[in-house]
Specification:
- This is Alkaline phosphatase.
- The protein is mainly beta.
- The chain has a single domain, classed as 7 Propeller (Methylamine Dehydrogenase, Chain H).
- 8% of the residues lie in helices and 42% in strands.
- The protein has 3 helices and 22 strands.
- The strands form 8 sheets. The protein has a 4-stranded antiparallel β-sheet, with no helix packed on it.
- It is globular and about 65 Å long.
Length: 286
């Protein structure tokens, strides 16, 4: 629907359209300037996804949106966010893995930068050269690390269900890094990207339509003891809400949404710590 909210007390439906996406999964939609931007997951979610760019409906001429361009981005584009002047579109490619018929396919997470003038795409890899050991020493969580794969291969009761030899050969640390949500800095020079399953934050510098990863930093653990700065946690499944402190109990934050604000010139990041799990069909990490 195209809805006119000029009179917020009495919104008016100007027109309705159906845009056929062929049954594809859509994950996000944004409007910026005269553009309507839609993130589309590939039929096989581990393949590269797309962003479809339409003309936005204008109040003065509410004609049906027309497709201007389709650009290819990374696997499972989960969030779209244009910069302030609608010249660059940032896309968080989650790169979620899948286990199909014993074959584990797990693409690397990445961020795509789409030039909205010429529709060129620059991909920012999260492979900084850091090893599993270095990332884990920094507190970055890797749900299915190379060591974990080796353990499941050698000792897992269902080791024959997955081709672990092939999975280990294809492994890179970046296959475990999954961008979920992102936000631009106030001057559009940086992107802050939540890696939810990793409970970490990637900072990317952006210049001339290209990006460079500055850092990947862990959010740290949340302390549920009396000195942890919380009101306690309810761990009893009795449908009541009884908060209590739990000495020695800590959890990962695993934030989903992220926002940024400046106070006295200092940027502050705000996160919604949803918590999450990691799934490859039959494999699930809680």
């Amino acid at each position: 629907h195209v809805i006119d909210y000029d009179d917020a007390a009495s919104p008016e439906v100007l027109s309705s359209y159906v845009i056929d996406m062929g049954g594809s999964t859509l994950t996000d939609i944004e409007v910026c300037g005269d553009m309507l931007l839609i993130a589309v997951v590939a039929d096989t979610k581990t393949d590269n996804g797309m962003v479809k760019i339409y003309s936005a409906v204008q109040r003065s001429s509410p004609a049906a949106p027309s497709l201007q361009q389709t650009v290819t981005v990374g696997p499972l584009p989960d969030m779209l966010l244009p910069n302030s002047d609608c010249t660059v579109l940032a896309v968080a490619n989650e790169g979620e893995g899948s286990d199909s018929s014993g074959t584990l396919v797990d693409p690397e997470g990445s961020v795509s930068l789409v030039n909205l003038s010429d529709y060129s795409v620059s991909t920012v890899s999260l492979d900084t050269g850091a090893t599993d050991a270095q990332l884990e020493a920094d507190g970055v969580h890797l749900p299915l690390s190379l060591n974990a794969m080796e353990y499941f291969d050698d000792y897992g009761v269902a080791s024959a269900d997955v081709n672990w030899t092939a999975a280990r050969a294809a492994y890179t640390p970046a296959t475990q890094l999954e961008p979920e949500y992102l936000v631009w800095s106030s001057d559009d020079s940086k992107l802050y990207v939540n890696l939810q399953e990793n409970s970490a934050l990637a900072t990317i510098s952006v210049a001339n339509g290209a990006g460079t990863v500055d850092s990947i930093e862990a959010y740290g653990l949340k302390d549920w003891s009396s000195s942890g700065g919380t009101e306690g946690i309810d761990t009893v499944g009795d449908d009541a809400c009884t908060l209590a402190f739990k000495p020695g109990f800590k959890t990962m934050r695993m934030p989903d949404a992220i926002a940024i604000a400046e106070v006295d010139g200092v940027p502050y990041i705000f996160t919604a710590d949803e918590g999450d799990d990691k799934e490859y069909d039959n494999f699930e990490e809680k």
